[in-house]
Design brief:
alpha/beta, Enolase-like, domain 1, five-stranded parallel beta sheet, 14 helices, 13 strands
């Protein structure tokens, strides 16, 4: 039988099913962004007339926002229910319906979830990993561990850094900064370096905790600490002031996890807002939005890393011209059937058809809200 999906690149959308879970975090998040003991996730299953199921999930940070996002997912999907359509066409048409309500925030978050699931269906329909469908191949991508080193007491950072390295032989870690004084931030850096050695790269994140003046002062104080990057020192969308910071500070500036869509991504690049970028699949527009942003970053020669969603981001980094680092987190692992592990600091994209997301149904039942 001829596979009509393989011929046309279209699938017939039948139904979308969403569930919300809240899973306990292996390490409590304590940062400028707040304090979190649990992590909400929206699990999305897209069914097709052809019998395939595409899966994706979203990490909305705040539990009370999950239900509104689910409502928007269902509304977007209702426009395409029963139609045969490819993911690029769906994305373009959906974007046009968002003109009146805006193409940032919950609207594009919901579209991103649908987009990721539809790409999963398309890859499964031709029995290819997503990376291969996109013209790449399964294989390695270097990863850093983002699971800890929050704004917790200094005396526990060394032991925690050693534990994080041990989760996968990591050669890079993320450390959160923005303590009350520059001296305390320097001490945090020293403690981590003493624990893991100077061959381990340290990425740092201020989580938008400073005003422009505060951020510049703090980064000048830390600019000789041999850090891989300073991430989001000020509000994520202040591109013009980011351009000043990027021009003034020696350590590379990293932004991108809060950029919504490829057009806003282009604005940041045109403003020369940062040295490096790290799109988030939930905000950039899913697989389609990532591919467009990655093309911009590649053409501009800007290193591209990922934010969360490690198993899907790894596949997309494998087809991104300027791929740099995969951010590896285990925050969603509790509800996934197979672990996505790292060995010697390398994550390996498997040859499983689709995006390799499969649910652990007993765990979902335990954590569903």
């Amino acid at each position: 039988m001829v596979n009509t999906i393989a011929q046309t690149g279209k699938i017939t959308l039948k139904k979308v099913h969403c569930r919300v879970v809240s899973v306990p975090l292996p390490r409590i998040i304590v940062g400028k962004v707040g304090r979190f003991t649990h992590w909400p996730l929206i699990l999305i299953d897209v069914e097709t007339k052809e019998g395939f199921i595409g899966r994706s999930y979203l990490e909305p940070y705040v539990e009370k926002l999950a239900r509104p996002i689910v409502g928007v997912i269902q509304e977007i999907f209702s426009v395409f229910e029963g139609r045969s359509i490819g993911p690029f066409d769906l994305y373009e048409e959906a974007m046009k319906t968002l003109h009146l309500d805006g193409r940032e925030g919950i609207t594009i978050i919901a579209l991103s979830g649908v987009d990721m699931a539809v790409w999963d269906v398309l890859a499964k329909s031709v029995e290819l990993p997503l990376v291969s469908l996109l013209g790449g191949s399964p294989g390695p991508i270097r990863a850093y561990n983002t699971n800890g080193l929050w704004l917790t007491p200094l005396d526990g950072l060394g032991k925690e850094a050693e534990e994080l390295i041990g989760q996968g032989g990591f050669k890079a870690l993320k450390l959160r900064l923005g303590r009350p004084t520059a001296a305390q931030d320097k001490e945090a850096i020293r403690i981590v370096r003493d624990a893991v050695g100077h061959d381990v790269q340290i990425m740092t994140d201020f989580n938008q905790g400073f005003t422009v003046a505060e951020g510049i002062k703090r980064m000048h104080a830390l600019d000789n600490e041999d850090l891989y990057w300073f991430e989001e020192p000020i509000a994520y969308d202040d591109f013009y002031n980011y351009a000043q910071i990027t021009n003034e500070i020696k350590t590379p500036i990293q932004i991108g996890e809060n950029i919504y869509g490829s057009r806003t991504f282009l604005k940041a690049v045109m403003c020369r807002a940062a040295d490096m970028y790290m799109p988030d699949l939930m905000r950039i527009g899913g697989v389609t939005g990532w591919l467009r942003a990655a093309s911009i970053a590649g053409a501009a020669g800007l290193p591209l890393s990922s934010h969360l969603y490690p198993r899907l981001s790894a596949q997309l980094l494998r087809v991104s011209e300027s791929a740099d680092w995969l951010e590896w987190s285990d925050w969603a692992e509790a509800i996934l059937a197979e672990p996505f592990t790292v060995k010697d600091g390398i994550a390996t994209v498997p040859s499983t058809p689709g995006n390799s997301i499969e649910w652990d149904e007993p765990a979902i039942k335990r954590y569903q809200i």
